[in-house]
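just leaving the lab so this will be short. what follows is a protein written twice so to speak, once as letters and once as structure tokens for the fold. can you read through it and tell me how you think this chain folds. thanks a lot i owe you, the record is right below.

___
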Amino acid sequence: MENELDISKIFWKLKKKIARDKMLAQICTKIYNSIGRRFNSTQECEFPGSHPVTLLKKNFEDLNKRDYYVCEKSDGVRLMLNYLPENREYMYFLDRKNEFYAHPIKFKNDRTLNHTLFDGELFEIKDDDRKYLMYAIYDAVIFDGKYIGNLSLNQRLTYAMKFVNEYIEKPEVLGITIKKMSKSYHCYEIYKQTSQQKHKNDGLIFTPVDEPYVPGRCNILFKWKPAELNTVDLKLKLIPGTKYTYELLCWSKSSEMMVYDIFIDKEGVEMDEKLCLEKMNENANTSNSTKLPQNQSFPEISDNILQDGIQSQLNCVKNTLDLDHIIKKRKTEDLNINDTFSDVRNDLTYDDKQKFTANIQNISAKFISKNSERYDGLIGEFWYDPSAEKIDLVDNSFVNGAWILHKIRIDKTSPNSYKVVSNIMLSIYESLSIDVLAENVGKIYKNWKEREELKRKDMEISDFFRK
């Protein structure tokens, strides 16, 4: 499992709630009032950034009929850059938990700037033996006190370039740049170039050129990821009476948390199994207890000691969950559960199994729970592996297709909606690979050039009548 970039160790976090809420209200008021959506400072403001939707085959129609820019999707932390003139020495980065992080800013030649807000992402670049942070701006919402979210993407990015090139000195620790954008028919080339880059990336973003900036979910802003990186964010909730076993929660249409699936932290089980083995061998070194041979595993640890076997674990889950309600909620019967326990190795031979098992039982209660609840209440980023084996909670059979934990999202406090998760599953089933995208490039190019020619003719006509 990968680690998330922890920005709290990089920037100074604004801890004063009054100052934080005031700054957030300023942003939300400016954005929402500018697009005709009522907002006042007493409302609770959600993260105001624009959220892309998963690219599906039906969205090819949008890519064919509209001008889109495409860029690589960096695997970093989503942050909005906020600058206020009353805090001239700092710029503030807003994350998806609505927390602000300060970083020094210095202007060129004593230039002044009013309220400014950009959208972008922070990621780590590894250049030979050197590592450094880069913040890439890919959109602009407010510049010098003026709302510019209603302008075209070209115009918005022009203001961002002006900020980087004309207004600020280069920060000492943090690099600030503009995200490189290309016309949408270059998507295949952009993706192939990602392997040569010095930072992690996990897909492509398609942004409409002539559409305004949309706070919240934007149905014409698309993200594409290869199947192996197509992830969802789900909340882990420990099932009462169990260890390592979690409900995976998402938002329902009625804005309530619903169970989407079940996840068992097999890695946590294996970590605690190793801890038990180490403790067992420590005891064996200081007593006449039986010691397990080095690099040897013992099946009873997984199958008899941890949770008293797989059947009791499943029964505990079943007794805790209202399966009928969950199945009805999802309108399907594919609620599944991952296999917790290690494979039984029948070829293991050992003369003193009873003594070994007794020693494990004596220490397991003390040491086995170290990792058994470690993810409770956190947001996990999961990817779906169609070939991974799991256990169907309905009939206890082994089936293929399981959620694999990619990383814990320390930058998020809320999971995806059921619709988002369903769309991602649909994109996986559609097998929307880079080759499928490449097959559509010719049509995207042809339509782009036709629109370009029409615009050129319109300009000629306009110039004629202005003479």
In short: Residues 7-224 form a domain with the D-amino Acid Aminotransferase; Chain A, domain 1 fold (CATH 3.30.470.30). The CA atoms of residues 143 and 163 lie 9 Å apart. Confidence is low (pLDDT under 50) at residues 289-314, 330-368.
